[in-house]
Design a protein that fits this description.
This protein has about 350 residues and is an alpha/beta fold. The chain folds into 2 domains: about 170 residues, Rossmann fold (3-Layer(aba) Sandwich); about 170 residues, Dehydroquinate synthase-like - alpha domain (Dehydroquinate synthase-like, alpha domain), CATH 1.20.1090. The chain is about 45% helix and about 20% strand. It is built from 14 helices and 11 strands. The strands form 3 sheets. A 7-stranded mixed β-sheet has the order 1-2-9-6-5-3-4. The protein has a two-stranded antiparallel ribbon with strand order 7-8. Strands 10-11 form a two-stranded antiparallel sheet. Strand 7 and strand 8 form a beta hairpin. The protein is globular and about 60 Å long.
C-alpha cells in the first residue's frame, strides 16, 4: 500500500493507494471516529463494490448503513442531499460518526456536502472508484451540488478525513469513462509537470490495459501534484485556481450540452480552447497546440465539438465562479508544464476560440 499525506495542519489527512479493499475497514478504524458509518454510493457502483465495503466495515466493528443515489450529473442536486439527511436522522447519526463516499466525482461531491452541512460537519471518507475521481475530485475538499442548471453553484470546502484508492475499481468502467478520467490526469502534467505528460503519453496503452503499477503511479502522482497545490492554497484564493485549467470553457460546454458529455470530455475540449486562446495571444505556437491535441487524441479524448452553439456556451461561461466584476479569469498555458492566470475582457477573442472548437 502506498501512503501520501495532504498537509493542512489540523485538517491533514492520509491518502492510501492500493489494489484491493482489504485494508479499508482497518484504515477507517484508525481514524478513531464514532461507531456508525453510512456508505453513500450510486446504482452503478452499488452492484460491484458495496457489499465488499460493507463487510470490510462490519468486520472491523462498525454499525454500517447504505444509501444509494441515482447516478449522473443531472441528479447532483439538493434533493439528493435531502435523502442523505433523512437517512442520517433515521439512524441517529451524531457528529462523531462517518459518511463514506463510494463512487465517482458526483457521489463524492454530494456526500462531501452532506457531511459538511449535517450537524455543521461530520466525518467524511472518500473511496473514489473512477479514474476521474481518483485523479482529481476526491482530493482537495471541494464539495457541492448543481443548482438550476449551474454547475457546483452550491457547496463548501470540506476536507475528508481519509482517501482510500483501490486502483482496480476502474476495470469495471466503460472505456469512455477511463478516457474521461485521463483528462484530469493529463491536466496535472500540462499545468505543472512536462515529464509527467510524457509518461502518460508513453503509457497510454498500459493504462487502457489496466497495468496495476502504472495505475498506482498515476494515482500517487496525481495526489502529489494536486495535494501540493491544495496545501499552498486550500480555499482557491490564488494558486489553486490553476487546477481549473480547461474548466472555464469545459464547464460551460458541459452545462450547455445538458451534461450529455462526460466532465472529462468537456475538460479536454476546454484544454484545447485554452491553448487556442494562448496561441491567439501570441504566447504559444500553433505547433504546440497541435502537439497537445495529439496527446489528447492518443488518450481517446475529444478535441472539438462540431455544432457547438457559440452564443449559448459563451453565456454559460459567465456563471463560472471565477468571474469577478464581469471579468473572466482564464488559466492559460505558457508551455507544457507551466500555466498562468489572466483576465480576458475581449468577448470576440473568446467567441473566436469557441468557434474553433465548434469545427
Amino acid at each position: 500500500m502506498i501512503r501520501h499525506t495532504v498537509n493542512l495542519k489540523e485538517r491533514s489527512y492520509p491518502i492510501f493507494i492500493t489494489t484491493s479493499f482489504d485494508e479499508l475497514g482497518k484504515s477507517v478504524l484508525s481514524l478513531r471516529t464514532g461507531n456508525k458509518i453510512l456508505i453513500v454510493t450510486d446504482e452503478n457502483v452499488d452492484k460491484f463494490y458495496s457489499e465488499i465495503c460493507l463487510q470490510e466495515m462490519k468486520s472491523n466493528g462498525f454499525e454500517v448503513y447504505k444509501h444509494v443515489l441515482i447516478p449522473g450529473e443531472e441528479h447532483k442536486t439538493l434533493e439528493a442531499i435531502y435523502g442523505i439527511y433523512q437517512k442520517l436522522v433515521e439512524h441517529k447519526f451524531d457528529r462523531t460518526d462517518t459518511l463514506v463516499a463510494l463512487g465517482g466525482g458526483v457521489v463524492g461531491d454530494i456526500t462531501g456536502f452532506a457531511a459538511a452541512s449535517y450537524m455543521r460537519g461530520i466525518n467524511f471518507v472518500q473511496v473514489p472508484t473512477t479514474l476521474l475521481s481518483q485523479a482529481d475530485s476526491s482530493v482537495g475538499g471541494k464539495t457541492g451540488v448543481d443548482f438550476e442548471g449551474h454547475k457546483n453553484l452550491i457547496g463548501a470546502f470540506y476536507q475528508p478525513k481519509l482517501v482510500f484508492i483501490n486502483v482496480n475499481t476502474i476495470k469495471t468502467l466503460p472505456k469512455r469513462e477511463v478516457s474521461a478520467g485521463l483528462a484530469e490526469v493529463i491536466k496535472h502534467g500540462l499545468i505543472l509537470d512536462a515529464e509527467y505528460c510524457e509518461y502518460i503519453k508513453d503509457n497510454a496503452d498500459n493504462i487502457f490495459c489496466y497495468d496495476e503499477n502504472v495505475l498506482q503511479y498515476l494515482a500517487k502522482k496525481n495526489c502529489s501534484i494536486k495535494g501540493s497545490v491544495v496545501e499552498a492554497d486550500e480555499k482557491e484564493s490564488d494558486l489553486r485556481a490553476i487546477l481549473n485549467f480547461g474548466h472555464t470553457i469545459g464547464h460551460a460546454i458541459e452545462t450547455a450540452q445538458n451534461f450529455e458529455l462526460l466532465h472529462g470530455e468537456c475538460v479536454a475540449i476546454g484544454i484545447v480552447g485554452a491553448y487556442r486562446m494562448a496561441y491567439y495571444l501570441g504566447v504559444v505556437t500553433e505547433a504546440l497546440v497541435e502537439n497537445v491535441k495529439e496527446i489528447l487524441k492518443k488518450l481517446e479524448l475529444p478535441i472539438s465539438l462540431p455544432g457547438l452553439d457559440v452564443e449559448t456556451v459563451y453565456s454559460h461561461i459567465f456563471y463560472d465562479k471565477k468571474v469577478k466584476d464581469n471579468k473572466l479569469k482564464f488559466v492559460l498555458p505558457r508551455r507544457i508544464g507551466e500555466v498562468f492566470q489572466c483576465n480576458i475582457e475581449d468577448s470576440e477573442l473568446i467567441k473566436k476560440v469557441l468557434l474553433d472548437l465548434s469545427r
